[in-house]
Amino acid sequence: MKQHRSEFPVEKMAKVFKVSRAGYYRYINKKESMTVKKNKELTNKIKLIFETSKRTYGSPRIHAVLKKQGEHCSRKRVSKIMKQNKIQAKARRKWKHTTRVSRDTSKIAPNLLNQNFSVDKENTVWVLDITHVKTKEGWLYVSTVLDLYSRRIVGLSMGNRMDAHLVVKSLNQAICHRSPNAGLILHSDRGTQYTSLEYQKFVIEKGFVLSMSAKGCCYDNAVIESFFHTLKTEHTFFHKFETRQEAMRSIFEYVEIFYNRQRIHSTLDFLSPLEFEQQSHFMESRVKIARRRQRQNFELTV
User: Fold this and answer.
1) Is there a smaller number of Cβ atoms within 10 Å at the N or the C end of the chain?
2) Are 159 and 233 in the same domain?
3) For 250, how many CA atoms within 13 A lie in the half-sphere containing its CB?
């Protein structure tokens, strides 16, 4: 009626729809409640966060972002608004991890992690693995190095061959970016790339320590497996890459711009890897300053 009141008399439309004119005027003059207004504001914010996350965030992560922005609302409320507005994270497909395990057991390193993925400091344990992405030119192989402390991808290399050179290239990139000390633990599966002479010689020369998963146990390297699952189910499964070069650009953008800097992780108290590291550095700086002041005060009293 409100939409067509310029075309037809209200009295006539009221008779057709069998409603009272008084009821119609009460309805159009009714003010929105504070709850309705707040839900509209929340809906707009939720839509913006959802689009910024590349349509990957569900209600837990969106609620966490809203909380960081100073919004006071329950996760159930966020979930209800998303359901009403048909806002749903990208559908996730299952994928299988395949690795060619080395038969040469003499080059297998012991498992130093034993599924203990808690690390107190960055550049203490890095985990490595390789996956493949389909393009119309053929497979693109992706080698990654992940810092277990912050879940940040610190090394990334891609190519058309899944060999030791690809692994060393990603590791060398991580070393250039992070400058780790000797004694760093490098954990991987038992793939032929990680048992190769080229890789192990490079690791030993740097003074790093090798660690490897048990045979056929993906849970021993669950963190990097989880990253590949995220990469594929949030990004590559939704693209049909014409060339390897196109896929490389797309994956690099996802990892460096979105995953490392923007995507929040529940294991990091809903911070991105970069935010987590920055917060950690800030806290370390405050501790150092406090200790320095304590020493200065002690020296003055003495």
Assistant:
1) C
2) yes
3) 21
* Tens digits of residue pLDDT in 109-137: 999 999 999 999 999 999 999 999 999 99
Cα(167)–Cα(102) distance, integer angstroms = 15
How far apart (Å, rounded) are the C-alpha atoms in residues 272 and 287?
Answer: 23
166 in the same domain as 47 = no
Q: Are strands 185-188 and 138-147 parallel, antiparallel or unpaired?
A: unpaired
- Both 225 and 127 in a single domain? yes
In the block, tokens 């504070």 appear at 34
* pLDDT tens figures, 141-193: 999 999 999 999 999 999 999 999 999 999 999 999 999 999 999 999 999 99
How many structural domains does the chain have? 2
Give residue for tokens 């594929």.
232
Give me the CATH number covering residue 183: 3.30.420.10
d(CA 294, CA 300): 10
- In this structure, what token pair is assigned to residue 249? 């650009």
Radius of gyration of the CA atoms of the chain, in A:
27
Structure tokens at 94: 């299952």
Domain that holds residue 50: 10-84
